[in-house]
Amino acid sequence: MQKIGLILIFLFFVISCKKSIIPADQLPVQEPYYYPPIAADVWESKSIQKLGWDSALLQNAFDYAGTKSTYGLLILQNGRMVKEQYWNNWTKDTKYYLASAGKSVVAFLAGIAQEENLLNINEKTSQYLGLGWTSLSPDKENLITLKNQLTMTTGLDDEVPNDDCTDDTCLIYRADAGSRWAYHNAPYLLLHNVLTNATGKTLNQYSKEKLFDKIGMSQSIWYNGTMWCTTREAARFGSLIINKGKWNGISLLNDSAYFEAMTTSSQSLNNSYGYLWWLNGKSSFMLPTTQMTFPGYLVPNAPSDMIMALGKDDKKIYIVPSLNVVVVRLGDAAGGVTLGPSGFDNEFWRMMKLAIGY
User: Fold this and answer.
1) Higher pLDDT, 27 or 114
2) How far apart are CA 287 and CA 295, in angstroms?
3) Angle formed by the axes of helices 185-199 and 102-115, to 10°?
4) DSSP string of 145-209?
5) For residues 210 and 247, is the Cβ–Cβ distance under 8 A?
């Protein structure tokens, strides 16, 4: 009798499981990521209503941005355009400089060059720039690697009169490489020289061949050490990054270990910095021009997994994998002179949080 009872329970369990199985043709279809055509001026859109976002609150976030010297602002979700707005006589074709947000592009290009065995980020910088590229003694200079340049840990003095000066007389010892984090533009700019020497091509040539032409950034260009592009071209780069270096099935960067290192804490001095990328959701952060360490997230109101390409005067490429969202903001300073993170970030994402509901 007990056996019969157990058999009946087993049969009931099997029948119940069968009923709960959803036929394959009835399973919800995962929407593929949308990539705008490379050679055509079209971009598919997605309705705010379909996403379940609050249209009025989203407009509030855009209106706020518009009062803060924003000239181009757009949001992609899964690659499709959710909202795009321009001010100051801008259009989707207006090109502007990215400032230090272009640093993140250089980090990606360095990964490609390493994958091609043209450089190794763990090697000393003097192998690519020659001995005496700084005013340091040879033993101190040879402590500096390409990775130190990518992570802002060269130890070179950032409090020199001209932060952009790459002459050896401007590159002064402050601390051993790897022992001090400081946001210093000159060592970054020298990565342009490293890429040129390693690849045998100008930065524009290498960028065009390995990145711009492959994802439709036809107007993008480097000029005097700064990258210029349209708001939509910056969004294309954001889509490439949110897909970990892949564009429409084609991998521009196969080295997943490099990509992971680039977009996670690169050293223990500033948890919120990768390889020339800013990172949210870490336990603490440092900011340009100061040696103070602040507790908490860089942008408390934003999703913790957000990574950012940030430039002077509030150039922003926000990438949020958990929401499959890319946001680009171009324009001038939202208030005060800023080199990267700013008060605009947190207030804008406070309003975005209300609109999206994450």
Assistant:
1) 114
2) 12
3) 30
4) BHHHHHHT---B-S-SS-TT--SGGG--B-S-TTS-----HHHHHHHHHHHHHHHSS-HHHHHII
5) no
Cα gap 145→142, rounded to integer Å: 7
- Cα distances from 235 to residues 22, 173, 241, in angstroms, run 37, 38, 10
Segment 9-21 mean pLDDT:
38
Tell whether the model's pLDDT for residue 147 goes beyond 80: yes
The 3-state DSSP class for residue 326 equals: strand
Cβ burial of 230 (10 Å; 0-12, 13-18, 19+) is buried
Q: Torsion angle, CA of 93/96/102/108, rounded to 10 degrees? A: 10
Distance of CA 90 to the CA centre of its chain: 24
Domain boundaries, the chain: 48-356
- Coil, strand or helix: which one is 277? coil
Q: Say yes or no to pLDDT of 339 above 90.
A: no
Looking up tokens 């336990």, which residue turns up? 283
CATH level 3 topology of 48-356:
Beta-lactamase (3.40.710)
Q: Give the whole-angstrom CA distance, residue 104 versus residue 234.
A: 11
Query: If you average pLDDT over every residue of the chain, what do you get?
Result: 93
**Token pair in block for residue 287:** 């900011």
Predicted local confidence at residue 6, as pLDDT:
38
- The residues, ordered by sequence, that sit 6+ positions from 117 with a Cβ below 8 Å of its Cβ are none
Mean pLDDT for the stretch of residues 41-67: 97
How far apart (Å, rounded) are the C-alpha atoms in residues 21 and 331? 52
Burial class (CB in 10 A: 0-12, 13-18, 19+), 56: exposed
Question: Residues 342-352, buried b or exposed e (16+ Cβ, 10 A)?
Answer: bebbebbbebb
